[in-house]
Amino acid sequence: MRKITIIGAGQGGLQLGIGLLSRGYDVTLVSNRTAEQISQGRVMSSQSMYDMAVGYERDLDLAFWDDACPPISGVHFRVGGSDGVTPIDWRSPMRAPGQSVDQRIKMPAWMAEFERRGGHLVIADAGVPDLERYAADADLVIVASGKGAVGALFERDAERSQFDAPLRTVSLTYVHGMKPREDFTALNISVNPGIGEYVNFPSLTHTGACDIINLECIPGGPMDCWQEVDSPEAHFKLAVKLIREFFPWEADRCTDLRLTDALGTLAGRITPTVRRPVGKLPSGAVVLGMADALVLNDPITGQGSNNASKCAALYMEAIVQHGDEAFDEAWMQATFEAYWDYAKWVTRFTNTHLLPPPPQVLKIFGACGENPALAARVANAFDDPRSLAPWYYDAAEADRFIDSFAVAA
Ligand SMILES: Cc1cc2nc3c(=O)[nH]c(=O)nc-3n(C[C@H](O)[C@H](O)[C@H](O)COP(=O)(O)OP(=O)(O)OC[C@H]3O[C@@H](n4cnc5c(N)ncnc54)[C@H](O)[C@@H]3O)c2cc1C
């Protein structure tokens, strides 16, 4: 039986580990936190996931929360100012609903499931000497450590990394009591140009169904004031104040909010980074990175957990297809390139939204308000951002694309 060791019990590592168990591999998963620590810890993400990504979980009988988790049924996109006027305003249902299960629920449940299905769970903070040991003992070591420090083993890819500093200060607030929308549950995206974005959607946390407030604050701007926050209550109050001030069209839904729990808040910054996939250990042994450890995006488009699921599905097939052959550097490189073939479109979509929107994107958003079929194309792109190319990124292609919808209408 081939032995695979995975570092990191997040979306990528656990999904891949459980998938490999189902294909008959001997899998060890190393986590620097126990299930209890994850469950009782701080929120880590808003983890909205869409149909394709949740589908890979369903394939492995891992979508335990399909009934309990409130669906994210569509997208509502608005651009407006502090005066409350929203010149861009379109909405569309998605082809299939998405969902967001608090990782504090999902990861501990999957850790238990991993062990139940025969996996070996080791609690340790893996450093380079440990990786040497795991590499000597296993046929393949995969590093799925997310933003963990051990990921520095993978060299930054300067060509593929568009930025070298964070473009947003990111804040999460898990709340109960948000007034439901009147049409459908949605990924609500509001943009206040030059200031930041407010994204919210329903989720499932320890205390039941909730909503997550994501504020994406342009550094140095008026929403970038999280450094002064010193308590969960202060964080909560600031989130509501910023919504009232900069996204007043959403304020009415926020009159009766309360925090889900004292650890239902998070603030920080992410430098979007793409890394080279093969990590070389001092002995010359090689390890392969995956998901956030290699392709880390700002959460503005809510794609990282989706990426991790898709990366896990792709790596699993590549490992199985490779049979009994050695998992050498060439295989690692090729396996990552196959993933990058997908992930580069996510990175492009995400990075586009971190900068002021190009004119064709504004034009597309304007046309979405007039044309439900076009709006549906954009809404469904959250499930598969590849579908935005080439028209999202090129003015002439955008005109042609918009026109094709006008003819059809
Ligand atoms: C504020 C915010 C909001 C987000 N919202 C969304 C969203 O709405 N939709 C979406 O799709 N994505 C979202 N994301 C991104 C998403 O959470 C991540 O992309 C996803 O969790 C990545 O999965 P992963 O398995 O690569 O890493 P992670 O989920 O980070 O898991 C890595 C695991 O490895 C462990 N680890 C690290 N180092 C070591 C070590 N040395 N030894 C052992 N274990 C180690 C960590 O403790 C962790 O448990 C958001 C992220 C943030 C920060």
Automatic annotation (TrEMBL):
Gene Ontology MF terms: ligase activity
Styrene monooxygenase StyA putative substrate binding domain residues: 146-253
Record Pfam families: Smoa_sbd
Signal peptide coordinates: none
Keyword entries, A-Z: Ligase
InterPro entries: FAD/NAD-bd_sf, StyA_sbd
Gene3D superfamilies per the UniProt record, alphabetical: 3.30.9.40, FAD/NAD(P)-binding domain
Domain of life: Bacteria
Protein name: Alanine-phosphoribitol ligase
Organism: Parazoarcus communis
